[in-house]
Amino acid sequence: MMLNILIDDKKIEAEEGKNLLQACLDNGIYIPNLCHVKDMAHPQASCRLCFVEIEGEKKPVPSCSVTVREGMRVKTDTPSVRRLQRSAFHLLLSRHFIECKVCPANRKCELQKIAKFLKVGLKSNYPLLLPKAVLETGKQETDESHPIFNYYPNRCVLCGLCIHVCRTTHGIALLTFAKRGIDTVISFYGEEDVSRLPGDKCLACVNICPVSAITLKSLS
Amino acid sequence: MTETLHQCWTAIREEAKARRNAFKEAAVPKIHIGMATCGIASGAMETKKAFEDALAEQNIEARIHTVGCAGHCYAEPVVVIDHPASGFPPIFYHQVTAGKAKMLTNLFLKEGDPRFEHVYGATEINELIPSVMEFPRFNQEKRIIMEKCGRIDPEDIHEYIAEGGYETLVKVLELPPEQVIAEIEKSGLRGRGGAGFPTGRKWALARRAHGENKIVICNADEGDPGAYMDRTILESNPHQILEGLMICAYTVGARKALIYVRAEYPLAVKLVTKAIEQAKELKLAGGNILGTGFDLDISVFQGSGAFVCGEETALIQSIEGQRGMPLHRPPYPVEKGLGGEPTVINNVKTLASVPPILEHGADWYRSIGTENSPGTAIFSVVGDVLHAGLVEIPMGVSLRTLIFDICGGVPNKKKFKAVQIGGPSGGCLPEHFLDTPIDFDSLTAAGAMMGSGGMVVMNEDACVVNVSRFFLDFTQKESCGKCTFCRIGTCHLLGILDRLTKGEGREGDIESLESLSEDIKDGSLCGLGKTAPNPVLTSIRYFRDEYEAHIREKKCPGKMCRPLTAFYIDLDKCARGCDACVGCCPVDAVFTTRNRKKGIDQALCVKCGECMVACPPQYDAVRKVSPPELAPVIERPATKESHP
Amino acid sequence: MAHEEILSEQEAIEKDIRSRVAAFEKARGNLIPILQMIQEKQAYLPPEAINTVAAHLEIPVCEVYGVATFYNQFRFHPPGRHPVKVCMGTACHVKAGDVILENFERKLEIREGQTTPDREFSIERVACVGCCALAPVALIGDTVHGHMAPSKVEGLLLRIRIEKEKAEREKVRGER
User: Predicted ipTM?
Assistant: First the structure.
């Protein structure tokens, strides 16, 4: 059944059971997001960018975790929505090593896109929270332990899409979140045996990464 | 069915009572020793050994009875000696070291002299010895959850049964579950894990939820670094929790129950595992409980040390063998929890409250506490307070009564500054909150939170900025790393607080802390992140002047932030030739001046304060100042001269 | 102890662990209990053990690693023979537990999370051992030391070293 909802005074129709973020994106209404993909059963709700205000609710809510309801009235551009989005974005930038010029993601990078949308630059309001060595040398860390891919922890925004896509492609995920808190990274731990890997036949994780934190070794 | 139930139960109860009577009536002295973790840490093992050795040596017949903890941590190791032949009532002794144990065996048990100078009080009102029941620490408490703690042996199910335990379960097994849930709803019991969700409503939701394999979980993943009541209850009376858990399982229709205990609590794990085994042996757990056809499989799961796993969805993730990262709610676990099945998760104290409520009725429970927060609450009151330990009081008692009357106030003539309630999710409340009644809603209104019930009392020498930094350091380390605000936001909060406590604060820092805190509160995914800024926000709200002093004057009013303080020796007071402070300095920073007095080398000093402790009170020559520039410069003489 | 003896002892432990792991039902929910069992036997999780667990539960090795690195309980390096744990709970913090930690670090010349080169001591901070009334608290092995002071640190460490030397001397004498 199709439901009628009102987004910023624009009437749209959305299928029952769909999440609000997807409904907006399908109707050409952009809401910043990093950790969302269409086929995810349970939203991760981890990037904290897709906030919207819904009439009847006191505070902004992440739209990826809301199921559409008939007659729902949503605002995507209010001061409190923008405050949270900009704050989350600046926090992410404070962990992101900027070298757009040489970065393979340049011009297709989600962070660049969001910065433009939110009308903020790529310089974080917060002091950079990068390892001392990175700040001193101006060279970012690289995890080269995987035989085919390189991983750049100082680029990564921990959206988890690589893990998700690997699991949906292969049934199991050959990469994982490891460690905890601010130290959280994506890890390929233990998969050194090239013969067991899909190898360069599958580039799903490389292709889905919004910031090119995983790249093909042969290209870098 | 009813007949077998009553036959089985009567046999069990009579057996338990017979055992208890045999113990009580034995014409020998009984020595009750508190052996929970806190007691053991204070040396209860050595005390027990000393009693055993001394009894053997003197050839005295007596029974040693190991019990759990009654919450009187300030008095550990605690021993109660019941020596009827001496003519004295049972006596409570505090801080019974091995030496004291030997002495009491020789003088009290053998010769009948209770050694009045060591007596803390009699356990009951009598004419010979003042009773502990006359002390506010004992008589102002209201024990419902911890009623049996410290009185029974946690390793013996019969002792719990002899005290009326499992009676309520038997009663409940004959009632329709709806009636039990209605009674709990009527009692107004709210979840003791911190958030205060009505327990009856949770159970009702779970009962209505569809699922063949409903599960109930006891949440004993106590993570607040300063609260240990759940552990104490598990170690002192595990059966009351089991009884509550079984009642919960019966009413919601679950056949599987789990107790989620931190692996850092090895004794609690051991005791609760043993309690489950004993309950199974008596057919109080397992298949076909007491012949009623009700099956309940109870097991223990050990949590691996992640504070965030106290959050329901993260707890479930960890049981499923995943990283303990919270999920977005809804769906709530009562609808879709462990393995996709309806799951009820209740805190230890909530479950332990259930048997007494059903025993005495909802109206009785409602008569205790306040309108919206009935019943009692347990606090672990620690820090600068005389009688630290666990205190169970009715909701609605004021902080002043709790801290000053019951716990004896702030020692060493120091002034009260603040009390931190609710651990990393709670807040720091100043003196003018002392008369606030404590309940879920009043604490939330003050910006704090009931949380775990951890309560740290701080005197004038504590620094609220430093304590906020401590909590942020904790939450930042314990953040699971999933959502942006908690993972990165708490790091920035900590970074600013770090600078403040080092004297590197800047104008605007307070405002940055406030605005980032609000963002983290509104933006985070789970309760850990949403409440993480509370310590910062409350301390800024009530102690803004201290933050300003750190920023503008580089001064720590509590003289607790080490980079902002200095120690020096007042040469007018220092005694010539005294070396007390020299030996205790861990870094050899104390030197001898030309006139054989002492000075502190500021470059070497690590500001541990040992010299201040070591300096004899009649000299009292060591001074602590903030900012450090206030310390006068005393030159260290060249090495040759100091060691002629 | 001869080198071969140590090796064979290590092999025996690994064999024991493999058979214990095999006894667990192949259910994902058993992952954490299995890791806890290994850590209890070996005091840490060696890389081989992580592989063993992954093979038994038929899940990728990286998933085991991802879960194990999430929890405080699991360690990936062997601790010292006398692990020092300094309590960093609220009550201990207010009573300057950080000074105690620093003093252990200074005396042992290692940082928190490290082990001394002779594998005798390691230092860890723990969240709260629940002895708040005895603050500040430190544990050496399983023994709780309450009301700690910086000046007590050296004595405690010295006592362990003296006891060790004494035991070694007696062993040498016994062999003669």
Answer: 0.96
Q: Which residues of C touch A173 (CB under 8 A)?
A: 60, 62-63
Helix (H) or strand (E) holding B239: helix B238-252
Contacts of C60 in chain A (CB under 8 A): 172-174, 176, 190-191
Chain centre to alpha carbon of residue B210: 37
- All residues of chain C having their beta carbon less than 8 Å from the beta carbon of residue A146 are none
Domain membership flag for residue C139: yes
Same structural domain for residues C58 and C124? Answer: no
Residues C63 and C23 in one domain: yes
Q: Mind listing the pLDDT tens digit for each residue in B396-424? A: 999 999 999 999 999 999 999 999 999 89
Looking at the fold, whether C52 and C118 belong to one and the same domain comes out as no
What does the pLDDT look like over B326-362, one tens digit per residue? 999 989 999 999 999 999 999 999 999 999 999 999 9
Q: For residues C152 and C99, give the distance between their C-alpha atoms in angstroms, rounded to a whole number.
A: 12
The boundaries of the domain holding residue C42 are 3-68
CATH, residue C99: 3.40.30.10
pLDDT along chain A (220 residues), means of 10: 94 94 96 93 94 96 95 96 98 96 95 97 94 92 92 97 94 93 94 65 92 88
What's the domain count of chain C?
2
Residues in chain C: 176
Residues sharing a CB contact under 8 Å with residue B173, sequence separation 6 or more, in sequence order: B5, B250, B289, B290, B292, B294
Residue to mutate among B488, B497, B498, B511, with most A CBs inside 10 A, is: B488
C141 and C90 inside one domain: yes
Q: Residue C14: exposed, middle, or buried by beta-carbon count in 10 A (0-12, 13-18, 19+)?
A: middle
Measure the CA–CA gap between B531 and B193, rounded to whole angstroms: 14
Q: Where are the alpha helices (DSSP H) in chain A?
A: 20-26, 79-93, 110-117, 132-137, 161-170, 204-208
